Structures are given as C-alpha cells and as structure tokens.
Amino acid sequence: MYKLLKKCGKIRRGEFTTPHGVIQTPVFMNVGTLAAIKGAVSTVDLRKIGCQVELSNTYHLHLRPGDEVIKKLGGIHKFMNWDRPILTDSGGFQVFSLSKMRNIKEEGVYFNSHIDGRKIFMGPEESMRIQSNLASTIAMAFDECIPNPSPKDYVERSVERTTRWLARCKAELDRLNKLPDTINKQQMLFGINQGGTYDDLRIKHAKEIASMDLDGYAIGGLAVGETHDEMYRIIDAVVPNLPQDKPIYLMGVGLPSNILEAVDRGVDFFDCVLPARNGRHGHVFTKNGKINLMNAKYELDSKPIDDKCNCPTCRNYSRAYIRHLFKAKEMLAMRLCVLHNLYFYNNMMQEIRNAIDGDYFKEYKEQKLNDWNGRA
C-alpha cells in the first residue's frame, strides 16, 4: 500500500508498505543482479549504508543457480541474508539485450542463453513462476523492451502485446499467490509502461495499464540512448496518466542529476547499475561532481574521496591509498569505491526526502545541480 505523505506540485513523498517492510520514497534501489552487489559488497554492508531495497534479476537467477534451487533454500531473502524488500526485474530487458538469437511470439520469447547457448523460452507465465520461486517482495511484469529508435508502427504493436502480457502476468501471479507451497503469498506486481519516445503511445499505454489495479507502475524503455530532454519529456507525459495513489518507478535511471529531475516530475523509485559500475573503475561521486581516482593528481592526495561524506570508505581511507589499490589490482579498491558510491546515492535520497519534508526541495535541487556543475 502506498501512502502519500506530502505533495509539492508534482513532487511526491510517500511510504510504501510491503510484506518485507515499509519503503520511504523517493528511494534508490541498490542493484544486485545475481543476488550480490558487484564489487564485494555484502548485505551486511547494505544495511550500514542505508539501503532500503535490493534489486535482483529474474533471467540471471533463473540461469544461475536456478530459481528452483533458491526456492528449496527458502527464497531469495534467506538465500542472500536480506530481510528488507527485494524487487526482481522480470528478465525482459536481458532477454532483449543479451540474446542475439531470439524469436518473439505472442506466447513469449524463444532465445539462447548468453552463458552456454542453450535454448530457453520465457513468457509472462514463466517470468511470474520464476519470480514466485524467488519469492521477491515485488515482481515486475514481463514486457518487450523496444530498441530506440524504432518505427512507430512496430512500437505500437509491441506495446499492445506488452499490455496483453501484463494481463497474463497478473492472472498468473494471482494464481501462484494462492498455492500452498508459495513462499511469499503477498508478492506484489508492478506493470511497465512502454511506447518508445512517442508521447501519444506512452499516454495511451499508461491509461490502459492504470485501469488494471496493480501494486505499482514503472516507466520502462528509457535511458537507452535517447537524450535527457527526451526522457524528461516522456516522464512529463506519462506520470500524470498513472495512478497517483501507487508508486511510480523509473527503470534504469541513472545519474544523480537525472534522479533530481525525475523526482521533480513525480517519480518515487529508481535503480541503476551506474554507481557500482563506476566505482569498480575508480570513478566516484562527490559533492562537487564525479572524479576519477586513477588520475595521477591523486597519487599524493591524503584527503578522503569526499570530506563531507560519512561512508565507511571516507571515514577511513585516502584517495592516494585507494588509487594505489587500483594500480596494484587489489580487490579492496573496488569494494571501497562501490561502498562509497552506493552510500552517496542512498544518502542523496535521504537528503531528497528531508528536503521534501522541509519544503526546500527546489532549492536543494538547484544547489546540487550547481555544485555538480554537470560533472555528476
């Protein structure tokens, strides 16, 4: 259940009650695709850095170790020792992005595993069964992720198929939640809005899925090559046409500046691999923008990554030391930078919530964008 605590223009501050706890929104979900954060960050670490929601992936966990294995071990929460909410992505994006050989049919998608090439079929029912076996808090509907740009007639047909798939997802999850051996009988379902960069298709689809009374709604198919202005235009078009008493999730976004702009447009949920991926390569976020610790100028820099940051990395280690670890190819370098970046994102979301609560979000946003000066 989503409870709107405050609204300032389009900006929303809420609480989303789930079977695994209450999520304070706006929120950034920390991405652990294979039930682990890349960069040697544990669930114990996630608790310490303020993570509210962890995100894992249906497709990848279906391949390794197998959703049936995870079910036998008590579900993904027990498997990875995480008692807070988990959202599982449906696998749709991976099916369409990782598999070069795929065949889209009304029943679903036939494709080859990116690991060993074996043939796999996944449709709405299969995605729901896998996610039910995983027993995540929130299951995402199986949709078709459309390449951008795509011809409008193809996008229109694809969106219509995604709507039909959503109805099948809902029916199947309702059935699964009633089975005696289902681990999480309160598993929630979010539908996904598609439509490329065509405003009219996006709005039409938003209205169609809004009528289906889901637990939440996502905006998919963005941050895949379009400009930031195009993305903001689509958000502006879609958000008013989604239920305002349900959480709204912008999938795969993104940069700190993108998050601020999307919060200003009424978005509640975010996720992105960017902070962890950047951290693994020595790119870290600070109050003044992003810096690259591999640069020679940090060789003798005894300051922390960010002197205003209270993360475990900044409290204990210098830029020079972390740079040395990268040069020496020590795994600790990645761990320290990923920890810092995820803390930066989680802490930024807390600051955003505080700013909304205190009626100064617009000032906060302007100050942050000026501080980052476009470099974040």
Automatic annotation (TrEMBL):
Organism: Clostridium fermenticellae
Active-site residues per Swiss-Prot or TrEMBL entry: 89, 271
Cellular component GO terms held in the UniProt record: cytosol
Enzyme class: transferase
Record note on quaternary structure: Homodimer. Within each dimer, one monomer is responsible for RNA recognition and catalysis, while the other monomer binds to the replacement base PreQ1.
HAMAP family noted in UniProt: Q_tRNA_Tgt
GO MF annotation terms: metal ion binding; tRNA-guanosine(34) queuine transglycosylase activity
Cofactor comment text: Binds 1 zinc ion per subunit.
Record-listed Zn(2+) binding positions: 309, 311, 314, 340
Residue ranges, annotated region (RNA binding): 252-258, 276-280
Function of the protein: Catalyzes the base-exchange of a guanine (G) residue with the queuine precursor 7-aminomethyl-7-deazaguanine (PreQ1) at position 34 (anticodon wobble position) in tRNAs with GU(N) anticodons (tRNA-Asp, -Asn, -His and -Tyr). Catalysis occurs through a double-displacement mechanism. The nucleophile active site attacks the C1' of nucleotide 34 to detach the guanine base from the RNA, forming a covalent enzyme-RNA intermediate. The proton acceptor active site deprotonates the incoming PreQ1, allowing a nucleophilic attack on the C1' of the ribose to form the product.
One Pfam family hit: TGT
Names of required cofactors: Zn(2+)
Residue stretches making up the tRNA-guanine(15) transglycosylase-like domain: 10-372
Name of the protein in question: Queuine tRNA-ribosyltransferase
Keywords, alphabetical: Glycosyltransferase, Metal-binding, Queuosine biosynthesis, Transferase, tRNA processing, Zinc
Taxonomy, superkingdom: Bacteria
Binding site for substrate: 89-93, 143, 194, 221
